[in-house]
Amino acid sequence: MTQEPRRARYGEVFGIAEFRAVFAAHVISMLGQVIAAVALTVLVYEKTGSPALAALTFSAAFLPYLLSGTLLSSVVDRLPARQVLVTCNLASALVVGSMALVALPVWALLGLLFVLGLIAPVFSGVRAATLTDILGEGPAFILGRSLIRLVAQVSQVAGNLAGGLVLVAVSPRATLAFDAAAFACSGLLLRLGTKKRPRRVAASELSLLRDSLAGLREVVAQPLLARLFIFGWLLPACTAAPEALAAPYTHEIGHAAGAVGLYLAGLPAGTALGDLWVARAASARTQRRIVVPGAVLTCLPLLAFVWQPGLAGAVALLFVAGLGCAYMPGFDQTLLAASDEGLRGRTLATQTAGLMFAQGVGFAACGLAVVAIWRPRHSSATEIGTVA
């Protein structure tokens, strides 16, 4: 009988100085990103009155994941991790700082978001691979990866709530400047707090592009990994509608701009609670068994939006849907076990890139689809409230 792996403890994970640096850097950059995203989403909707463009604000940061995640995935193995992480953060600070310096039209903001989206999958893939170097590949890695996701979810809760409040008094350009500073601080933390490691593989004769495509073909050629990728990508794409339509939905049910942050906080709050509890308290066997029921739970509450619930009801439904994301630790465990050691970095990078791209497609599809059926109760988008 196979012995059940022991459960990792918070003290074990946070006792590692490098993980503390990665964790703190992620907290800082995520808070800045989320606050800026709330301002941009509302700003685009106010300027255009278009639910499609408001949803596209989300998509512009996600859709490049397919391009960058596919063509640059070999960076995970070919370059030293710390160098890549710090460079990505500084480049992101430069892009967001450019958005804050001058008053840009909507198309230019979306273009810069697209550039930012090209950087993000490289950073995420390298960080995911680095976690295996810092925490190993056992229970500590599963808990550490869950904690990184927790940062993203809690930052969305805190950032969305703060973003809604900030919109009352602070201009979008000021929030973008804050985001640029957050990226710079995150890069500094990673530079000072993580070890300098050599690249994961020896130099390749293939170009960066050809090496990336070859690695991608090798990863997706494995049937089990291919099935896991499809599952892990399609589920978030199918549940993207509530977030993609946050600004127009809250406007439609009669709330001002500040309500967008509260509405957006529901899903990540449930996700953080479900994911972290299962990663810490449930056994590895239980984590695997939760995967399918959890996936179903992420979808069922969203059916109730057919009846157009009010703000409190919508937040409650999104919270319950978020609890279903307790399937993630079990999914991570299965993905890690299915990947060959030599391709583990590429596997994690591919999963992250595909996930974010699928979410971007979901956001864009929801925004475009709603144009055909949306019947606004209010005649002007400017009734939402003032951003600047």
* String of helices and strands: HHHHHHHHHHHHHHHHHH
Please name the CATH architecture: Up-down Bundle
The fraction of residues assigned to DSSP E strands is under 5%
CATH class: Mainly Alpha
How many domains, as an integer?
1
Rg, alpha carbons: 20 Å
In CATH terms, the superfamily is: MFS general substrate transporter like domains
Quote the average pLDDT: 76
Helix count, DSSP H or I runs of 4 or more residues: 18
> For the terminal residues, how far apart are their CA atoms?
64 Å
CATH topology: Growth Hormone, Chain: A
Which regions contain 5 or more consecutive residues with pLDDT less than 50?
378-388
Query: Which class of secondary structure composition applies to the elements?
Result: mainly alpha
Throw out a few tags for this protein:
388 residues; mainly alpha; globular; disordered C terminus; Growth Hormone, Chain: A; 18 helices
What does this entry show, briefly?
This protein is mainly α.
Task: Describe the structure in your own words.
- There is one protein chain.
- The protein is an all-alpha fold and 388 residues long.
- The chain has a single domain, classed as MFS general substrate transporter like domains (Growth Hormone, Chain: A, Up-down Bundle), CATH 1.20.1250.20.
- The chain is 77% helix and 0% strand.
- The chain contains 18 helices and no strands.
- Helix 2 packs parallel to helix 8 and helix 4 packs antiparallel against helix 18.
- The longest helix has 32 residues.
- 54% of the residues are buried.
- The C terminus is likely disordered.
